[in-house]
């Protein structure tokens, strides 16, 4: 299976990162492929399904937002493409072992420690 230049091996994850708030249908439409074909090519080139890659990138951005001081779970969920807070919470627990609130508390504690030092 050959990939179009938009999802060449070296740029697959970078490309998906630029559109991670969209779903798999949007990504397949972008390259004018069926969702099934796109998923097969993406899986072959990256070793993970597009949905898993999208979720991983959403979690990375959410963690960065938390580390940057954002504390509204609803806003973070909306900004990162999760449908709602509960979906984001489940993704955090599944991938990171803790809900987003725990990361927010850790970030606040870390920021407080920096201010006190």
TrEMBL record:
Keywords, comma-separated and alphabetical: DNA-binding, Transcription, Transcription regulation
Alphabetical list of SUPFAM superfamilies matching this protein: Homeodomain-like (SSF46689)
Classification via PROSITE patterns: HTH_ARAC_FAMILY_2
Record-linked SMART domains: HTH_ARAC
Record bears the keyword 4Fe-4S: no
Record protein name field: Helix-turn-helix transcriptional regulator
Superkingdom, taxonomy of origin: Bacteria
InterPro entries with a match to the protein in the record: AraC_XylS_family_regulators, Homeodomain-like_sf, HTH_AraC
Organism: Massilia terrae
Annotated ranges, domain HTH araC/xylS-type: 27-106
């Amino acid at each position: 299976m050959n990939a179009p230049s938009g999802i060449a091996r070296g740029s697959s994850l970078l490309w998906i990162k630029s559109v991670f708030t969209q779903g798999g249908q949007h990504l397949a439409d972008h390259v004018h492929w069926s969702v099934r074909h796109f998923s097969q090519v993406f899986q072959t080139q990256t070793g993970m399904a597009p949905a898993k890659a999208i979720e991983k990138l959403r979690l990375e951005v959410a963690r960065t937002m938390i580390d940057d001081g954002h504390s509204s779970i609803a806003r973070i969920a909306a900004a990162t493409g999760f449908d709602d807070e509960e979906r984001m919470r489940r993704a955090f627990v599944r991938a990171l072992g803790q809900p987003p609130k725990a990361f927010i508390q850790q970030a606040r504690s870390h920021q407080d420690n920096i201010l006190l030092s």
